[in-house]
Write a structure and sequence with these properties.
With 114 residues, the protein is mainly alpha-helical. The protein has one domain (3-83). Helix content is 65%, strand content 0%. It has four helices and no strands. The longest helix has 32 residues, at 42-73. The two termini are 25 Å apart. The model has no long low-confidence stretch (mean pLDDT 91).
Length: 114
C-alpha cells in the first residue's frame, strides 16, 4: 500500500468516527427517552419496547464498529494495515474503501463464518 493510500484510508476513518459517534448518540436518545416522553398506552408501550430492543442491537453493533475503527486507525501507518490476518494477502482496496476496519479478506472471513 502506498503512503498516499494510507493517508486516504486515515481520512476515511477520520470521517467515519465522528459520524458513527453521532449515530450512537442518536440511538441512545431513542433507547432512553426523556422523562415524560414515554407512552401511557399499553400497546404503544409494547411497540416501544420492541423498538428499544432493535435500538439496543444497533447500539451494540455501532459501538463495536466504532471501537474497531479506532483500533485500526492506530495501525494504518504500519505494514499490518490492509493485510488479511488469516492468509496474509492484501485485502482488496475496494473492501477497505467500504470497511476500512477490515481485518480479513472476504474469502477468509467466509471461512471463519463471519
Amino acid at each position: 500500500m502506498t503512503p498516499a493510500q494510507r493517508v486516504h484510508f486515515k481520512e476515511i476513518i477520520e470521517t467515519q468516527v465522528p459520524e458513527l459517534s453521532e449515530e450512537i448518540e442518536t440511538i441512545k436518545a431513542a433507547i432512553y427517552p426523556n422523562k415524560g416522553e414515554g407512552t401511557s398506552d399499553k400497546v404503544a408501550h409494547i411497540s416501544f419496547k420492541q423498538e428499544q430492543n432493535i435500538h439496543f442491537q444497533r447500539h451494540a453493533e455501532a459501538t463495536k464498529r466504532l471501537n474497531r475503527l479506532k483500533q485500526v486507525y492506530l495501525k494504518v501507518d504500519t505494514a499490518e494495515y490492509g493485510v488479511c490476518q488469516e492468509c496474509e494477502e492484501a485485502i482488496p482496496l475496494a473492501r477497505l474503501e467500504l470497511m476500512p476496519e477490515s481485518l480479513y479478506c472476504v474469502a477468509c472471513l467466509n471461512e471463519r463464518g463471519g
